[in-house]
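How it folds
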Amino acid sequence: MKACHVTTVHGRYDTRIFLKECRSLARAGHDVTLQVADGLGDETRDGVRIVDAGKRPGGLAARFRFSATVMREAAAAVGADLYHLHDAELLPAGARLSRDGRIVVYDAHEDLPRQLRSKTYVHPLVAGPLSVLVESYEDRTAARFDAVVAATDSIARRFERVARRCSIVRNYPSLEELGLESMPARDRLPKACYVGGLRDIRGSFELAAASLLTDVPIEAAGRVEGADLDALLRGPGSRIGLLGILDRAGVARLMTESSVGIVTYLPVPNHVEALPTKIFEYMAAGLPIVASDFPLWRDIVEGGGCGVCVDPSDPKAIAAAIAAIVADPGVVARMGAAGRRLVEERYNWSVEEKTLLALYRELEAAS
């Protein structure tokens, strides 16, 4: 089948879109094009043709016009049998492609309505009504498509009410993509790490406070978002080492040399039932975890014996959990081995890609 994945928001080498979905489909024999909007030009990599529609404009209104017209026209020019859309702003383009008789799949990476309720740039009085409007539009439009691919069970439960087909394809890690299969064994250093964007709703202020309550060094790889947080983390009293944005090899090195990985997101609506990729990447690297005490995360982390869960709003609890794990190399080894085993047996991309390939076979047979 000739398939065209389309994104205006994500980078051309996005972990879910390119490294996992597009490459898996290409390896399975599909003719795969990835339509992007980054201004970096066209290329072919790992059997996937990447086509650039030009850098997307700034400003919300301009972005939506670009997605609805330029990206739709560029994608249509590919002449694909199936269009796989990865951004909500592409929904109008998807509706037009569907009317033109193309197979359309909407990939819901996030629960967008719940996400809007926790955005700091959306006024609280506006967030609620806007969330309702967005959910209504997303549901009505997705109902016209041939399928929805959901990144988590909670997103799937929402779309199963309206979609013709709904498949769950989770963001579990690929050991090959992380480079962990060939990564040499490293001695664990008595330090903790955090990988990902540093933001207020991700518990970064609380983590900064926790760093002052333990002697365990904490290193963070990711972009700092927000002027207040940036000033705090770069200030003279900060105890968190900022590494900036690392490539995949750098992330793998950081995780395999640390003794504990941290993911203490705050309990906003979009987090409680999310499945952050970093949880499973920590596990794949044999890294014990200190995570937020959400029921879903507790089942995975404490139920799997690969870490501990704490109140993410309590810096003392975060610091104590980090210190307790790092202080006992036996615990580090045991929890790390348990996490790695779970990824090898269950939480890995080779399991999830089978669901994606099965959906494509079903859509091809029905066309």
Remarks:
- Residues 60-78 form the longest helix (19 residues).
- The chain has a mean pLDDT of 91.
- The chain has two domains: 2-172+349-366, 175-345.
